[in-house]
Design a protein that fits this description.
Elements (H helix, E strand, L loop, with lengths): L2 H8 L7 E3 L2 E8 L2 E8 L7 H17 L5 E7 L6 H6 L1 H17 L4 E10 H5 L7 E4 L4 E3 L3 H8 L3 H10 L7 H7 L4 E2 L4 H10 L7 H8 L5 H16 L1
Parallel strand pairs: 3-4, 4-5, 5-6, 5-7, 6-8
Antiparallel strand pairs: 1-2, 2-3
Helix pairs in contact: 2-4
Pfam family, one: MdcE
Protein name: Malonate decarboxylase subunit gamma
Organism: Oxalicibacterium solurbis
Length: about 240
């Protein structure tokens, strides 16, 4: 879905979102609330410029509009893989963006992520996965790594990975698999404005992704392992 059509559906009461070099910024009206909107389009990779632009928009919202919700619209092919960005320290820029989102949440800004097209690797980790809750449209493409690339890295034949992906969502791309793993809260269909309003009304700041992944059968060991580690730490502390 094009971001312009998405914005109309999310904010039928109006918005002033603009695009500059694949970076989206502005605000929209949801019921009686105004939200800050940031994001990307055109499958753009997240380089130092966009990472800083998103961080700056979040900092400005914290300064000028305390408590205002943040909505992150996600369409990215991931972290930009260029020598220039690596030499400038792209990892620090991405970390800065993630920290800004975390500070905003701690200061009372609800943070909602929405994958409306494509979400890959580092560009998704420091946006949708940093939100209070991340949602996706049905046709959204979410993955850490494509199966051909995964085969090259792991030396596991691609045919074997394709078979594993049929029963294990960890290996498979797609919004439904991330829903099963708990990384995506829900898939939005129908009235997107109503979906966004409902998401903003939720006030649960706890990270329940591991519990959701266990309940949905997509990540069966993440929560038990975390609980075992915590229990072992409590024993050592005692």
């Amino acid at each position: 879905m094009e971001w312009q059509a998405l914005a109309v559906q999310l904010f039928p009461q109006g918005h002033d979102i603009v695009e500059r070099d694949h970076f989206l910024s502005g605000s929209g009206t949801v019921g009686e609330r105004t939200v800050t909107v940031i994001g990307t389009t055109g499958h753009t990779p997240i380089g130092v410029e966009i990472a800083m632009a998103q961080a700056a928009a979040i900092l400005q919202t914290m300064r000028d509009h305390p408590g205002r919700p943040l909505v992150i619209l996600i369409d990215t092919q991931g972290q930009r893989l260029r020598h220039r960005d690596e030499m400038l320290g792209i990892n620090h820029y991405m970390a800065h963006l993630g920290k800004c989102i975390d500070v905003a949440r701690r200061r009372g800004h609800p943070v909602i992520g929405l994958v409306y097209d494509q979400a890959l690797s580092g560009g998704f980790i420091t946006s949708g996965l940093m939100a209070d809750a991340c949602y996706a449209l049905p046709d959204a493409e979410i993955r850490v790594m494509g199966l051909p690339a995964m085969a090259r890295i792991t030396k596991v034949p691609e045919e074997r990975l394709v078979e594993l992906a049929k029963s294990n969502p960890v290996f498979a791309p797609g919004a439904i698999n991330y829903l099963n793993m708990g990384g995506v809260e829900a898939i939005w269909e129908g009235d997107l404005a109503a979906c966004l309003m409902q998401a903003l009304q939720q006030d649960d700041k706890a990270d329940r992704r591991s519990a959701r992944g266990l309940a949905r059968g997509g990540r069966k060991l993440a929560l038990p392992v975390a609980q075992a580690v915590m229990a072992a730490g409590d024993v050592q502390a005692a």
